[in-house]
Amino acid sequence: MIVKHLEDVLHTKDDIDTLTWNSRRLLLKKDNMGFSMHDTIIKAGTETLIWYRNHVEAVYCIEGEGEIEVIGGETYPIKPGTLYALDGHEKHYLRARSQLRMVCVFNPPLTGTEVHDKDGVYPLPEETKA
């Protein structure tokens, strides 16, 4: 059994802070669950290009307002209670009007060191070892 509290992750190597987001990585590949789970803050007033070419992701908003714009497709509002799943590896912009707090689940699981490359992509877990 795994039991953690957000405070166990804050200010550790599993608390990744960037210009537009902060991912507190609660479950990772090393936990052998087959997925990773993150408590993520999207910073107010930001726009982030994201393309999970190597992963599928489900996101559940628990705080804030924003939108997700699928490149070449629709734009969807995000508010508390919104779930979206990137089951088709959709390249998208994530915009936060106010600070968004999201629960994110990835498959395959992240190792914990990933950040988006110039195309908004996370590398595959085996690529992070190099």
TrEMBL record:
It holds the Pfam family Ectoine_synth. Pathway: Amine and polyamine biosynthesis; ectoine biosynthesis; L-ectoine from L-aspartate 4-semialdehyde: step 3/3. GO terms for biological process: ectoine biosynthetic process. InterPro entries: Ectoine_synth, RmlC-like_jellyroll, RmlC_Cupin_sf. Keywords: Lyase. It catalyses: (2S)-4-acetamido-2-aminobutanoate = L-ectoine + H2O. Its EC number is 4.2.1.108. SUPFAM superfamilies: RmlC-like cupins. GO terms for molecular function: ectoine synthase activity. Belongs to the ectoine synthase family. NCBIfam families: PRK13290.1. Catalyzes the circularization of gamma-N-acetyl-alpha,gamma-diaminobutyric acid (ADABA) to ectoine (1,4,5,6-tetrahydro-2-methyl-4-pyrimidine carboxylic acid), which is an excellent osmoprotectant. This is L-ectoine synthase. The gene is ectC.
